[in-house]
Design brief:
2 copies of one chain form a homodimer. Chain A is α/β, with parallel strands linked by helices and 425 residues long. The first copy, chain A, has 12 helices and 25 strands. In chain A, α1 runs parallel beside α10.
């Protein structure tokens, strides 16, 4: 069964994934020269850097997602298809999806990254990941439900299974989550749950290396550590997870950390698509591409963004897996495909940043290192700027101003869509 | 196991349900005279009149819900508990929940109404109800997913199962949904799905009586019928459902209406709590109360809102099941309980209204009947006014202005929270 797409007398570019890379590429490809087909399993683009605020009930999913059809309403020869990609055949130039197969002239893989459990199925079963909107909502509901359970638990019972949270991984996601949880503990819990003693809530951040935010400079790491500790986060450096048991984590050095919820932010790996030769994979599970984003060993197949690993002298392990690299590759690839450049891709590093909490962040731009309020203000501006959609920017801004002024999030609702009729909602 | 509530030397009022009645009562009871316990299965108050806009992707759930704990942060001696109520024992003065039992001095039942399937399990299995946020989100996701399926369906296939929608019940919910669907068909589908012919989408509204909005005056019914038909809704009056089969409805007169989705807005009945004697139930499934909202045959048990049926000479079948009646009863009951009134409850009818579409509504206030733009403007103002929370009002207003100006909703996202780890999200 073929996927229903009109035939047009233009080369057909099929893009798999509507993240920063795929979305930007579909926007940049001129509709006069290409038929563009953008395929994603969801009908929206997701702004991943703010997942953690969805999990913390600070933002609604709709504020950081943007409907794909809306974006391409006015773009001719661009077709959005919601489908699950199952693989491709580079010989036949065909992509297979659960909605049917589709022929391509040029295939661009932009499926990004997925959570890396390092082949530990026991860990995968025991932790909460944070690599999608659905997972963020799940975490939000779990936190809120556990607080309600703690309130009604019999007096003198052990509340650690409900209240204690551990985050594994001290990268930006782990740091931002830990900071946001610390603020929830300090500002929200005492007001909303006066019956609960918020000192009984513990937030642990577990990092294998000797510093947080290892991709940034040591000064930024130190500042982050100081800030998080001052906010009450229990940071455990040089600590690795041995195993996760019911309501506790066993570290490799024998220590035990008690927590009912374990959030896994310890690593990512490429979200691979079947059809890429094993020999083209990097040690980190990404797809090796040359300087032109071409997948090693294949014809007319490109990979961009977190999925792609372009090993250069400057970045021997590939570019950082962040939005700017994906967007730059997308814009470069659009130029290259319409033959307006024949120079290889070059990444312009715009720096790094992470927010820690209210008035607290660290940023590094072009040799300039900032911390505290100025860094925090820059973080806010950059994120508002890169968000898709005027309405989204407005709503996010209102929510941020609101919670800044009133130390409050308004979205502490435990909502689940009803199950299909047979499941009785 | 007892539900964990501190013991205070004050009479304990236990309120079941945080809808318009229960929520208002908990706000109105003075914390100096009572210990108030508000129990709901959700941790938020829901603004039911706007469910249909959530289903139509015009508003987010969070814009029309309000966290209960937030509302009662500053109210002493008021305790929110999220629990599923299982029944009560009027002899022992105990309420049973899935989180434990709780003693009461005064019990107020305010559980509202639930969808009435008139004991037809086959219908319950085949239709989509609209009496909760979860059900509204389910409907939204179904509509959006079916549009995506229609786009990828093989050419010349039958799209009726994906595109045709029938609503059973021509009350306010049915009318508002039909109008909103007609606007989606006209303004959104052609822009978002240029590949689809929107003439192939049919919206049916099925009503058993000879007019829509039977609780309003015949002129309002006529105007509503004219407006809906001009918007392309296929209204079937004097039509009753015999049975619902796959992708079609069989009417009692033998006619067949094709539709892949059937929304059931044909009636409500009391959401009963176990412990009320059978003899205290009204024919409509509500609980009979006297002029003082006291449940017939029980001591210190009150019922208010949609659940309660107070049969008076003016309202022989009980008050209309609408927010104003519930809120007035709640305020009256608060006065009565603190002994500041001993006069029986009297309902002040503030009128009725229903919105049909852009610049189209019907309202009836104190003998004054309005239609068209003025009615629509009043509808908007009243709903903004009764919404709980400044932030919610602001966000709803922005969304309404936005969609009014741009003929657009921004929330067309198919999002489901991840399932728990064992279920693999």
């Amino acid at each position: 069964m073929p996927l229903n797409i009109p035939d047009i007398q233009l080369p057909r570019v099929v893009i798999v994934g509507a993240g920063f890379g795929g979305f930007q590429l579909a926007r940049s490809l001129p509709s006069s020269s290409f038929q563009t087909v953008l395929i994603d399993r969801y009908n929206f683009h997701q702004f991943q850097p703010l997942y953690y605020q969805v999990a913390m009930a600070g933002l609604e999913p709709s504020s950081i997602c943007f409907p794909l059809r809306r974006s391409f309403q006015k773009k001719k020869n661009t077709f959005v298809r919601v489908a699950e990609v199952e693989g491709f055949d580079p010989g036949e130039k065909k992509l297979f999806t659960d909605q049917g197969a589709i022929r391509y002239d040029i295939l661009v893989l932009a499926t990004g990254a997925r959570t890396n459990y390092f082949n530990r199925q026991d860990i995968e079963q025991a932790v909460i990941p944070m690599k999608s909107i659905s997972e963020s909502l799940y975490l939000r509901n779990r936190i809120l439900e556990d607080l309600e359970k703690a309130v009604v638990a019999p007096r003198d019972s052990d509340l650690s299974p409900y209240l204690d949270i551990a985050i594994v991984g001290g990268g930006p996601t782990g740091v931002e989550l830990a900071g946001a949880l610390a603020e929830m503990k300090k500002h929200i819990v005492p007001k909303d749950y006066p019956d609960l003693d918020n000192d009984r809530m513990h937030i642990h951040l577990i990092e294998g290396r000797d510093r947080l935010l290892a991709a940034m400079r040591p000064e930024s790491s130190d500042r982050t550590l100081t800030d998080l500790r001052s906010m009450g986060v229990e940071v455990h450096l040089n600590s690795r997870v041995h195993s996760i048991e019911t309501n506790q984590i066993l570290l490799t050095d024998g220590r035990i950390i008690r927590a009912g919820k374990v959030i896994w932010a310890a690593g990512i790996t490429g979200a691979l698509v079947k059809g890429v030769p094993e020999t083209s994979l990097s040690p980190g599970g990404r797809i090796r591409v040359d300087d032109y984003c071409r997948v090693q060993g294949l014809q007319q197949v490109f990979a961009i963004g977190d999925l792609a690993c372009m090993e250069t002298s400057e970045y021997p392990k590939g570019h950082p897996q962040m939005a700017p690299a994906a967007m730059q590759q997308a814009r470069w690839l659009a130029s290259y495909l319409r033959s307006s450049t024949d120079r290889p891709f070059r990444f312009t590093d715009k720096g790094q940043m992470a927010t820690i909490g209210r008035n607290k962040a660290v940023t590094e731009f072009a040799g300039l290192r900032l911390a505290g309020f100025p860094a925090w203000a820059i973080w806010l501006l950059v994120h508002i700027y890169y968000l898709i959609g005027v309405r989204n920017r407005l709503i996010v801004l209102i929510n941020w101003i609101w919670s800044y002024l009133f130390y409050d999030q308004n979205l502490r609702l435990i909502i689940r869509p009803r199950l299909p009729p047979s499941g009785k909602g």
